[in-house]
Amino acid sequence: MIPFMDIKAQVNALRPEIDVAIARVLESSQFVLGEEVAAFEEEFAAYCSGRYGIGVNSGTSALHVALLAAGIGTGDEVITVPLTFVATVASIELTKARPVFVDVDPHSLTMDVHQLESVITPRTKAILPVHLHGQTADMDPILEVARRHNLVVIEDAAQAHGAEYKGRRVGSIGDMGCFSFYPGKNLGACGEGGMVVTNNTDYARTIRMLRDWGQERKYHHVLKGYNYRMDGFQGAILRVKLRKLEAWTEARRAHAAHYNKLLSGSNVVTPAEMPYARHVYHVYAIRMGERNQLQQALQAKAIQTGIHYPIPVHLLEAYTDLGYRPGSFPQAESATNEVLSLPMYPELTISAIEQVVESVGDFHRRVERPCF
Ligand SMILES: *Cc1c(COP(=O)(O)O)cnc(C)c1O
């Protein structure tokens, strides 16, 4: 069996160090926030070339408090993309603001910057680009439009730890960057976690309060806040894992290069690494016509794959109230019908990659000669 990802392998490889980290937290009994979380905040912010990191209990919470810190609320509009995980859009609605979509670019699958200005209204307050699959959105034009219209830019970097745009690390390119440490992400906790990274002192101070019931100090609640605090075990474990992240990212990139080479000349479209990007391949998504059949054929050979995502957010049942229809965002819609995510994780082996590519080839030979 070739799994889609292998979290167990990663934990097992680090087991001695993780055990020590857990023991340290048990010893100190700092189960919520505390020294390990503070140290991880500093180390992860530095990794992102950012000044401040504020640890929270999920990527969704990170997006929620970042939007709140930017002053977003009822009646405001936030521009994002429909080709993303639902949490991007849900976090906007948590603030009572309205999500407004623009379609994605067909090559990068990230925000089509040419469509941005056409959806800006007097109510627009922020742009929330998503660094989908581990590749950054085209940030310079986004920042330029934001500057011209006085909008805040919040990066959804939940899939893109360590990704770069023209040599700049995600998380510190916009006004704020939001990360998830859900176990399957490129940097994953042994539980839930998230972080906001920013260079802005005021945003950092506000977010620190919002995640902890709006307290400035104990029982002095200056804002209406939340219990979004990061747990001490996660901080300690993430510090161990952060030391491996660059090596893991390089392994992912090497696997992607290997897939690209073996799949070149076939009739699947391999993911584009844009000239401005350092793609960190959270997901390695190929595109092709008979996607569902290929997925079934691979499953029959015990090769697990994923679809990111099968339905764009504007067509999800829960979001019909936004008023979009099939055809509203043709690029996002055709991507949802054609993308297939192949197994991708640092511990993946070259022989597994070769086996996956061979099975993709077998499928095509069968489809092209149905009588064979
Ligand atoms: C995972 C993810 C989130 C949400 O993170 P959680 O930690 O699961 O709350 C948000 N946006 C994107 C693009 C994601 O992939």
Describe the structure.
The protein is α/β, with parallel strands linked by helices and 372 residues long. It is 39% helix and 14% strand. The chain has helices spanning 7-13, 15-28, 34-47, 59-69, 86-94, 139-149, 201-210, 232-242, 245-263, 291-300, 330-338, 350-368; strands at 52-56, 77-80, 98-101, 124-127, 152-156, 164-165, 168-169, 176-180, 194-198, 215-217, 220-221, 277-278, 284-287, 339-342. Strands 1-9-8-5-4-2-3 form a seven-stranded mixed β-sheet, with helices on both faces. α5 links the parallel β2 (77-80) and β3 (98-101). The mean pLDDT is 97. Residues 58-60, 84-85, 87-88, 130, 156, 158-159, 180, 182, 194 line the site of pyridoxal-5'-phosphate.
Observed structural traits:
single chain; 372 residues; alpha/beta; Aspartate Aminotransferase, domain 2; Aspartate Aminotransferase, domain 1; seven-stranded mixed β-sheet; three-stranded antiparallel β-sheet; 14 strands; 14% strand; globular; binds pyridoxal-5'-phosphate
In summary, what is this structure?
The protein is α/β, with parallel strands linked by helices and 372 residues long. Helices cover 39% and strands 14% of the residues.
